[in-house]
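Standup, Tuesday
Yesterday: got the pipeline producing structure tokens again.
Today: sanity-check two examples.
Blockers: none.

Example 1:
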Amino acid sequence: MTGTTTTRTRRAVAGLVVLGALGSGAGVLTAPAHASGGDDDRVVRTGSCSGAASWKLKAKTDDGRLEVEGEVDSNRTGQTWEWTIRSNGDVVARGTSRTAGRSGSFSVERKIRNAAGPDQLVFRASKNGGGDTCVGRLTF
């Protein structure tokens, strides 16, 4: 191998090692939070619900506010779910959504106040009729 090929190979292996380390967090994927705004300024968490569904919670800055998105994927179309979004313990949004599409999922997105310091965000969704509860948390 030439010196350039060896360097490229080492860089590729190092990149895969970093990606593997990031993805090994037991169902949790995290991107660093930055104060600058934009698409690189986001935090994402994923996890399993109490039943067969899974959840995703995302947050990023948008024009001085926080854009928060909660998603539930149950693989079952037509289910009704009640959900809330909390910021630092206060309910900032709530509603009812129905799973749809081929994936049997729903998502809700809200822009909320960006408090001084870290924001503790919680997305909670419960399937009507019981059987599944999802709780996602992140700090932004």
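Example 2:
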Amino acid sequence: MKTRIVAAALMLSVGAIALTGCVNPVEQLINNTVEDAIEGATGVDVDAGNGASVPEGFPSDIPLPSGSPLVALAVDGGYTVTYTLPSVADGEGIIEQLKSQYTTDSESDFGGMKIWSFTGSDYTVGVTLLEQEDGTAQLLYVVAPITQ
């Protein structure tokens, strides 16, 4: 189960970055290719590109940016959702909300990439904020249920 979630999350990260800045016909082709590759490798249903939506059952107490996600999936009670944001500051606002609601387990800063790990009563939440060269940012959530 965890291997499938990790594999899907890694593939989504690469796919989401590849999707950034594509024009519509090319974007649709890439969306389909990325979705097919992830579904083939993991057996997980993936929603990517324009019109993607947060998976049904995603915890309502986890703050999300406005707009639609770039890529989203749900598997074995866990979720991975990626957004493109106008700026890193927009992502940092989401992080501050998470810090007020969840316990911060770790925080790492690699320059253009920051990673946080949070724990709540029912879920662990991993968040990666990746600054893009054009000033936009990618915000990737990996949410896993806490098993008792």
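Quick observation on example 2: The chain has one domain: 2-145. The two ends are 16 Å apart (CA to CA).
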